[in-house]
Amino acid sequence: MALKITVIGTGYLGATHAAAMAELGFEVLGLDVVPEKIEMLTRGEVPMYEPGLEELLRKHVAGIEGSTGRLRFTMDWAEVAEFGDVHFVCVNTPQKHGEYACDMSYVDAAVESLAEHLAKPALVVGKSTVPVGSAERLAARILELAPAGGEVELAWNPEFLREGFAVQDTLHPDRIVVGVRSDLAEKTLREVYATPVGQGSPFVVTDFPTAELVKTAANSFLATKISFINAMAEVCEAAGGDVAKLAEAIGYDERIGSKFLRAGIGFGGGCLPKDIRAFMARAGELGADQALTFLREIDSINMRRRGQMVEMTREALGGGSFLGKRVAVLGATFKPDSDDVRDSPALNVAGQIHLQGGQVTVYDPKGMDNARRLFPTLGYAESAEAAVRGADVVLHLTEWREFRELDPAALGDLAGTRLILDGRNALDPVLWRKAGWTYRAMGRPAA
Ligand code: UDX
């Protein structure tokens, strides 16, 4: 009989995983503790913007016309425990308030609430990004709490999806990593992934700590690549070099690779910043803090890019105060194709200029509601054109396709001054300069 799957937590990770599992033919039950989320998902609506996810969900959510009916949602732990053979734990692990460490309270609560109801054999599979050592601790907790005792096992199966590509990354993962303690757990996970999702993807079987570490190591490496190229941008700025050309040239070396070498205002979002901090905190607890001191530098290079963008703007405006200056900001989310504004470099830059007296007007294709909630005192406009009207300077801070497709000539007629600063190195300088704009980008010569 086919395995029955449950997914606990319906954020970016859980909602996508649940829909993807249904797409692969499994019966899936998703759980969340937030009633509004469950109501939305049951209507086939996604609580966040993620390309392709709503379509996938509507294809499978029970009760929606023409759906397969394979996907349902609930708030009832007993129902989940009774239904599932494999339970994926997909709740979030944010940074603790005022600390670097990871807040494990949601994972702990989810595993405990589930375990208390597990009266039949099951595999609990952690997908959340957690400090190394968590799986071992949680396995012991399950053994303590589950009525089925040793018949309930834990496995760790980190998720590598990127926001904006969540559906694609879940259905076609680069690799599948599983941390297991028994042949049965491995066999069960092979069965889950013996579907199109796993075909062609390397399947790495390992122990708990390695599986947990793969995720934090991968994110640390990505953060390091971005901060490396941003450090090169600083040197280029000092030496008059062009970091975009430099990145292109070093990227041709296959050992280096061209991805994640786009210099700009740096990384943000709900993962990379908090993951490298939590990793440092955990290494400290383990007495291995020296091994990760370089991540402090990665973090600090990243954070100072935001201030450098503010200073670049000040200089471009002739120096001095921002008082009375009109600043148009294109982009609020931490990356394009997402409505996520968590730790967004774009909003940070906009906020700094606003707090220093600038008249800031922000426009973002999908992130306006979230940005308004997080930073209600900033000015907002309903289109790029409206944001740019009368501006002394335009800042391009999130590289949405919509901004690359703007007509610089038409926009120039609206702006007070044809001055654009590209914080993402993503616009075509030739195009903008041809339309009479002064175009500047981080780490590149002025003209
Ligand atoms: C990341 C990892 O990529 C993913 O594998 C993991 O599962 C979760 O964390 P995500 O947070 O969605 O995914 O964003 P990502 O695409 O990695 O971008 C992170 C940040 O880096 C963004 O703010 C982006 O603008 C920035 N970035 C990325 C750069 O500044 N330069 C680059 O070259 C690439």
TrEMBL record:
Its EC number is 1.1.1.22. SUPFAM superfamilies: 6-phosphogluconate dehydrogenase C-terminal domain-like, NAD(P)-binding Rossmann-fold domains, UDP-glucose/GDP-mannose dehydrogenase C-terminal domain. The keyword NAD applies. Residues 328-429 form the UDP-glucose/GDP-mannose dehydrogenase C-terminal domain. It catalyses: UDP-alpha-D-glucose + 2 NAD(+) + H2O = UDP-alpha-D-glucuronate + 2 NADH + 3 H(+). It comes from the Bacteria. Pathway: Nucleotide-sugar biosynthesis; UDP-alpha-D-glucuronate biosynthesis; UDP-alpha-D-glucuronate from UDP-alpha-D-glucose: step 1/1. It is an enzyme of class 1 (oxidoreductase). Keywords: NAD, Oxidoreductase. The keyword Membrane does not apply. One of its GO terms (molecular function) is oxidoreductase activity. PANTHER family: UDP-GLUCOSE 6-DEHYDROGENASE TUAD. Belongs to the UDP-glucose/GDP-mannose dehydrogenase family. This is UDP-glucose 6-dehydrogenase. It comes from Streptomyces aureus.
